[in-house]
Amino acid sequence: HMSVMNIIVTFTIIWWVILFMVLPFGVKIDIEKNRKLGLASSSPENSMILRKILITTLIASIITLIYYFI
Asked: What pLDDT, on a 0 to 100 scale, did the predictor assign at position 2?
């Protein structure tokens, strides 16, 4: 069986990998609007970061549980 520290480390690594996979989903960029506001041209209109964090946590939890029981 895995120790608590192994579970935490496994979850953390999986969480970060999934986050970087989820971040680009649903991103809309309005280059003209960003230019007028003085923002970087690649700035998203609405990043939906809280939603992406919740999705990431759910997916990482499921994967960690599967890994733990295997």
From this structure: 84
36-49 residues labelled b (16+ CB within 10 A) or e (exposed): eeeeeeeebeeebe
Q: What percent of the chain has pLDDT over 70?
A: 100
The CB density around residue 7, as the number of other CB atoms within 10 Å, is 15
Q: Cα separation of 38 and 36, whole Å?
A: 6
Q: Closest by alpha carbon to 63, among 15, 21, 28, 23?
A: 15
Over residues 32-44, the pLDDT tens digits come to: 888 888 988 888 8
